């Protein structure tokens, strides 16, 4: 048995099927004596007055259940990792590498986890991004990219204190193995199993075609500095957070000191998931 007394629930409010699965999950948890800590949007759906803002859910819970897609899960993943709280994502979208549990599997997976099935838990390490004195954590990636109207930008890349390369491109993606199937994959990066100890650097539309994706040891410290001035450039964390990146600004990326415990489906392996999501099943 797990020691879960409170389960936070976060939803994608406009997902067509969210209300039905929300009621099912709440009934399952409360039937096991687990109190539900609802995000504002979820509380309104159920007509309950006690909702919290999304950012407060992980710290107030022993488990977080996400009903939505990967973007919804990414919005709380870094907070759940900091709070040491496991996350289960129920996929209400289409792709869903992180929210891999289907609606039909939701109660089965919850029951198995609450009964102590540790095989469902996959540890996923995060990136720590340091810039201008701020520290942020990311499950998928740290991205430096040009704005919609900007021209190609130039970046200086350092690894473990040594100059590694200068890149002229639309940008650069620094990703975890978990994030290798996200933006990095779309930009031509490799797929890494979540337990492979590496950080992936994937250029976005590089000017020099010989600049290929690079995997470096997970213990590496990667520094990305913007050399270009006068262009609109953004630093984005997990596609959710970020801001303006100016000439001379640098972001230092390394493995974060904490992992996320991600609860997966009891019916498929990682390779089953990749085959299903990428259409490799034949």
Radius of gyration: 20 Å
CATH architecture of the largest domain: Sandwich
How far apart lie the N and C ends? 39 Å
Number of domains: 2
Strand content: 35-45%
Topology as a string of helices (H) and strands (E): EHEHEHEHEEEEEEHEEEEEEH
**Mind describing the biggest β-sheet?**
10 strands, mixed
CATH superfamily of the largest domain: Probable inorganic polyphosphate/atp-NAD kinase, domain 2
- CATH fold label of the largest domain: Tumour Suppressor Smad4
Overall form: elongated
Query: What class, by secondary structure content?
Result: alpha+beta
Helix percent band: 10-25%
- Tell me the number of strands: 16
| Tally of contiguous helical segments | 6
Low-confidence stretches are none
> What is the mean pLDDT?
94
- In CATH's first tier, which class of the largest domain applies? Mainly Beta
Description:
The chain folds into two domains: 6-117 and 266-278, Probable inorganic polyphosphate/atp-NAD kinase, domain 1 (Rossmann fold), CATH 3.40.50; 126-257, Tumour Suppressor Smad4 (Sandwich). The strands form two sheets. Strands 1, 2, 3, 4, 5, 6, 8, 9, 13 and 16 form a ten-stranded mixed sheet that branches. It has a six-stranded antiparallel sheet with strand order 12-11-10-7-14-15, with no helix packed on it. Helices cover 20% and strands 36% of the residues. The chain is of the alpha+beta class and 282 residues long. Helix 3 (70-83) links the parallel strand 3 and strand 4 (87-91). The chain starts with 5 loop residues before the first strand and ends with a helix. It is built from six helices and 16 strands.
